[in-house]
Amino acid sequence: MAQVYKLKYLTGRKLKVFLALADRLIPPDADSPGAGTLTTAGVVDWAMGRMPEGLRGQFLAFLLGLEVMGLFFGLKPFSASGPAAQDRELKWVESCPLRPLRLGFFGLKSYVCMGYYTREDVWPTIAYEGPLQPERPFADPVIRALCRGELEVRP
Question: Does pLDDT of 143 surpass 80?
Fold first, then answer.
């Protein structure tokens, strides 16, 4: 029986928005599954557990705000919009004159990249052979198992 990591923060609508956003930031191609996967969401969800509660709340509220803002860019919520509308919205948020929106976008983008590029199954697609240092024990073995793909991530 495979060990399971159950998502704690990226659930329901927030997970749907996260997966859609992650796929726009790092889309799938012939060599890569893209970032919009449960595995990436699992790594980010684990990291969110280490965030201060207030910041985590802002992060999750920003995700839901992106979902609602999609109505202005594609007449549908972000997760239901097409790629062109999603790209328009993300480009607008990225260069928005409102600093909190820009910071939210770059914070979210950083977490998507962290969640994707720490996954060992992604390393061959970027010709990364792994760390040069010998294996060291981790304070929390869950993150190591997530990055190695040893845990099945479930909503």
Answer: yes
